[in-house]
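Exercise 7b. Backbone tokens:
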């Protein structure tokens, strides 16, 4: 099994000097490589087995799901690859967690805040549009001031599909917020409208007060209908992994 000792910096061992950064969510695996501080474009995989380990000396993981798959994959890694798994702490990397039990905060939210704090000095709001929609407020002094968690697009669609027999979902491809013309489009457009309006309310209340960063798999399709000052940044969690062990 791969070694779990840590080291500082990105050392080269027999020509290998790449860090593999892996964000494991509920629906997909996001990953990137870092070489001497330079980050590649974020990519996506259906499973951990698809990841290329060529030239990799260290694997950094942030995982909120797939525990059995993660453990099985880690057990297959070569012995000379170091493993570092991100965990939430009461205070680290310039961020202080507001949760009384910090282990209850999702590590993806923690990593996104670390990246946002590391790269910005203002008051911040981080919105993650994933399986759930999360909002986290981060003061310029690093204090996490709490946030919100509401269902994401897929979760809302699934909930309606499970509880209403007459809802025949179309797969959730609709991106409109106008009234639907059948049950399926009514659901698709309705949940999109809820998400757009919720995100817009957060953007509006923080206008001229804080920088708003939006990440997550649904960020582009939801925010295409939002207005105001915000920045879409899909690699926040990955960059949090890059920063959090330095």
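Sequence design result:
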């Amino acid at each position: 099994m791969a070694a779990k000792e840590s080291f500082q910096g990105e050392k080269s061992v027999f020509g290998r000097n790449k860090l593999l950064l892996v964000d494991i969510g509920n629906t997909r695996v996001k990953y990137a490589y870092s070489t001497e501080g330079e980050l590649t474009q974020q990519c996506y995989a259906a499973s951990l087995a698809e990841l290329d380990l060529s030239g990799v000396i260290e694997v950094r993981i942030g995982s909120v799901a797939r525990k059995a798959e993660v453990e099985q994959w880690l057990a297959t890694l070569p012995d000379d690859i170091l493993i570092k798994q991100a965990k939430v702490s009461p205070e680290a990397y310039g961020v202080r967690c507001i949760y009384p039990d910090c282990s209850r905060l999702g590590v993806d939210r923690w990593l996104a805040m670390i990246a946002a704090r590391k790269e910005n000095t203002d008051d911040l709001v981080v919105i993650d549009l994933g399986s759930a929609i999360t909002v986290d407020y981060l003061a310029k002094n690093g204090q996490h001031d709490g946030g919100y968690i509401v269902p994401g697009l897929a979760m809302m669609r699934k909930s309606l599909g499970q509880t209403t027999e007459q809802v025949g979902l179309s797969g959730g491809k609709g991106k409109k917020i106008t009234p639907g013309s059948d049950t399926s489009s009514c659901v698709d457009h309705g949940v999109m409208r809820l998400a757009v309006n919720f995100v817009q309310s957060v953007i509006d209340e923080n206008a001229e007060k804080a920088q708003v960063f939006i990440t997550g798999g649904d960020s582009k399709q939801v925010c295409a209908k939002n207005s105001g000052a915000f920045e879409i940044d899909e690699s926040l969690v990955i960059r949090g992994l890059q920063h959090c062990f330095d």
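Instructor comment: The longest strand covers residues 56-63. Confidence is low (pLDDT under 50) at residues 3-14.
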